[in-house]
Amino acid sequence: MADLEIIAIHDIGEVRPGDDLAELIAAADDAHLQDGDCLVITQKVVSKAEGRLVDIDPTDPLSHKPLVEAESVRILRRRGELIISQTEHGFVCANAGIDLSNVERGQAALLPIDSDRSARGIRDRLRARHGHDVAVIISDTFGRPWRRGVTDVAIGCAGIRAVADLRGTTDALGRELMVTEVAVVDEIAAAADLVMGKAKGVAVAIVRGLEAEWFGRGSVVDEIVRDPADDLSASSAAEPVGVASLPVPVVAHHRGEIMCRLPAEHILGVRRIRKDLLDVARATIDDLVRDRGADGV
């Protein structure tokens, strides 16, 4: 890859419902687009342009919560005011992606209905009206499981493959890569956010110098959203610990006494310990007691 450039576009202005983002971008003074560029556009301005704004009670900090329920197909976790849910798009995120920042007080912004389609529309209009052959990524800010902090990811794309499949290629030492698939649109979205930020008022950035083979037909929903059948974390609770994964109790005679040695942490301290393990231990002890009585020990 050649040197990578990330260029903020500052002159978009306030976006309102019905605005044509392709025209706003093309008219910006600092948007000197080149073929092969990738535009990263924040979800917020896409939602505004598409009219995905809903009125809420500005005096009630929880007035947007019914919207979260309505925009979710599955609630995964709740903690206080926070809800982790799955949207119709397949995204798993906080509060169904509903956002109150950078919108007028008394309004909430919903996710675009189809961010891949939104990206395709902007790309097609820029190419048809202005001759710019560029890729488009719609970005949003998500948290990550088991990690603090948020980062930008792609929720829609057009003109660029969402995933670079490196399986079958080799690493720097010649080893064949067996499972490596890189979510390049997420990496590009995160990189663009370095010049966009959360409080700079920059909603669009140009990423220039990407690998040519990354460009092509792409879709976040089709390529990145994992099928629940393949998702090890999709179940609502952790897999219970089974008998096969715990130590087998050691039951033996010792100096005329029957001893059952089972690590205490597997009896008293471990959540979700299986009752059948203890049943096996008790049944084994009962059998040994009967055997000892029969043998006259």
Task: Spell out the blueprint of helices and strands.
Elements (H helix, E strand, L loop, with lengths): L4 E5 L11 H7 L10 E5 H7 L3 E3 L9 H6 L1 E8 L2 E6 L4 E3 L12 E3 L5 H16 L4 E10 L2 E12 L5 E2 L15 E2 L1 H13 L7 E5 L11 H4 L26 E5 L2 E5 L13 H21 L2
Parallel strand pairs: 2-8
Antiparallel strand pairs: 1-12, 2-12, 3-7, 4-5, 5-6, 8-9, 10-11, 13-14
Question: What is the strand content?
Answer: 15-25%
User: How many DSSP helices?
Assistant: 7
Major sheet size, sense and barrel closure: 5 strands, mixed
What is the 3D form?
flat
Q: What are the segments in which pLDDT stays under 50 over at least 5 consecutive residues?
A: 236-246, 248-254, 264-273
In total, the number of strands is: 14
The end-to-end distance, rounded to whole angstroms, is 79 Å
Report the oligomer. Answer: single chain
Instruction: Estimate percent helicity.
Output: 10-25%
Structural class: alpha+beta
Return Rg in Å. Answer: 28 Å
Order of helices and strands: EHEHEHEEEEHEEEEHEHEEH
Which strand order spans the largest sheet, edge to edge or round the barrel? 1-12-2-8-9
Provide the residue-averaged pLDDT. Answer: 84
